[in-house]
Amino acid sequence: MPDSHGTTHTHETYQRLITLLDTSSVAYELIDHEPEGTTEAVSALRGHPMSEAAKCIVLRVKVDRRTTRHVLAVVPGDRRVDLDAVRALHAARYAGFSDAATAERLARAVPGTVLPFSFDPDLELVADPDVVAQPRLYFNAARLDRSLVISGEDYARVAEPRVERIASP
């Protein structure tokens, strides 16, 4: 069934997320809202501070000339990803934003709907400790018109991110 973008890609990612949460006995809430993908605007629609949102960004990390890795960085919605921290974590030469096509392929979602979960072995999940510490963590549920809220503790248990300080103040 196509989503609002006319693709089934996002629908499959959404179903995979819901199945994972249901089979992991995680309490979650779904929130339907106007289609929106920017953290500031969607946080306002959902009615919570941006600090409670999970901002999810796909990064390209060049470890050396031949080795490039991809990282899904998850930081609080009111902060930025500290690229130097991500680079240092991987002892890499470079860390920067991935191109849109690669990000969409690895995250299996369109920009603005990227989940704080990785369903691709080539996409390493790294979350800031302030994300997993949230009592209520909000994020778009692989769709622009639906969000999900879950505890940071349940998120960490189910998503199993590498937890590292990657958000800039």
UniProtKB/TrEMBL annotation:
* Gene3D superfamilies, A to Z: YbaK/aminoacyl-tRNA synthetase-associated domain
What name does UniProt use for this protein? YbaK/prolyl-tRNA synthetase associated domain-containing protein
Among the Pfam families in the record, one is tRNA_edit
Lineage top rank: taxon: Bacteria
SUPFAM superfamilies linked: YbaK/ProRS associated domain
Q: Where is the YbaK/aminoacyl-tRNA synthetase-associated domain?
A: 33-157
